[in-house]
Amino acid sequence: MLEVRGLSAGYGPTQIIRGLDLDVAPGKIVAVLGANGVGKTTLNKTLSGLLPIQAGDIRFEGQPLGGDAADILERGLVHVPEGRKIFPNMTVRENLELGSYRRAKVRRAANLEKMFVQFPRLRERSTQRAGTLSGGEQQMLAIGRGLMAEPRLLILDEPSLGLSPLLVEEMFALIRRLNAEGQAILLVEQNVVQSLEVADTAYIIENGSCSLSGPASELAGNPAVLSAYLGLEIGDA
Amino acid sequence: MYSPAIIAEAMVNGLLTGAVYALVALGLTLVYGVLHIINFAHGALLTCAMFAVWGLSEGLGVNVYFTIVPLAVVMFGVGYALQYWLIGPASRGEDSNTLLVTLGLSIAIENALLAVFHSDTRTLSGDAAFDVVELGPMLLSRPRLIGFGVSLLVALVLWLLLTRTDAGKAMRAVAKEPMGARLAGIDVRHIFALTFGIGCACLAVAAGLLLPTFYVTPRVGNAFVLVAFTIVVLGGMGSVPGALIGGLLIGMVESLGGLLFGESLGQGGIFVIFILVLLLRPQGLFGARA
Prior knowledge:
The structure holds 2 protein chains of 2 kinds. Chain A is an alpha/beta fold. Helices cover 37% and strands 27% of the residues of chain A.
């Protein structure tokens, strides 16, 4: 459903993504992995229209993807950004409502109820200001706000960042659950081990382009991945 | 010492004037809160609105209160267009540029008005300004009572807009988290222009409420904006309830100050408060810490 071909992008004249290819099939979880600063967030920002495409081509459900962030969201590509970017001055409910500002507005009430079933903590705190939530709750809220737009493809940027190990487990369980309901997910993470466990396919990004890709289960056993990201030296000694 | 009745009357009169101050401050604080810019053209735009009210009323004989709604619509459009096509693009994302653009705009507007109307002081003819309403022992000016009621009504409408409508919620979202707002599909440029337009519409209403008891000159707006700026700082930069409470408070201080120290020193109290707020509670009454 998402096809990225030869994509280059960055800030101003600076190129951060260089000739990247990537595919997401309907109903799948695709993991984009890599260390800090390799261009993962730049990729997301380009996909969601916050940054311009410098070269290459992005197609979403067969049509070229372009325009501003609002147009892209309207087509169902929804980006839950790194650092959550929730509205701290507004209540949990208002945050969720604004998730459907441009898309799925007519089903706002029903989707709000769905979110409260999915995230009971958010119901408990629905009248509380979002800025007063814990980090884990804020992440749930950010994802909930994204889901309110009924995404065709959900981009999750570093959803486990800054969460305690227990909450990280919960986050990955949530990703599985959403996917089991048919949600296609592009998961951008530094947490390689757990991402490879939930993903169908994975891309390893280095220096703005893809250094390795393939089925997640294969990559999980790949010595190059293990040594680069886990510090394991296989076959030595 | 003054009799309690006189002091009470001064306080009530201050509240009535303060409500209109609050209206001017509401526009200023809304624009600051959402766009994070201080609109230096606020005073000049108020002057424009006051001249428009004067023109409609004196030239065409329209009842001054009937000018408010159409003028608010026009001023909304003017504000929207100014932000969307002039201030926004000219600032190129730099707040310091916005400052210069709005300041330049105010100088241009003021001088254009000076060229057309000269620096003469103009008032509405007729004696509506002297209409009074008897309220117990107090004599209150009818135009000011109307000004008070309409200002509170506008504040209420604004509050409902910000808390009950998607556009208002989007304004609050953009105020604190523009990137999150863009990712939620909110067109930030449109919301900025909308906010600026609403700020200008507040000025149109304020102009219609002020003119029956006040005069207009090409520089008249500045006096109000100075007071409005104090109110915004007192209430908390960007806070709508802060602007309302701050406005009422400042109106009362000015009125009591005028009573105790003489009319010309009345505004002194305002600036004493301004300095005290900056020293003791720089975030204002309702402001969050930066």
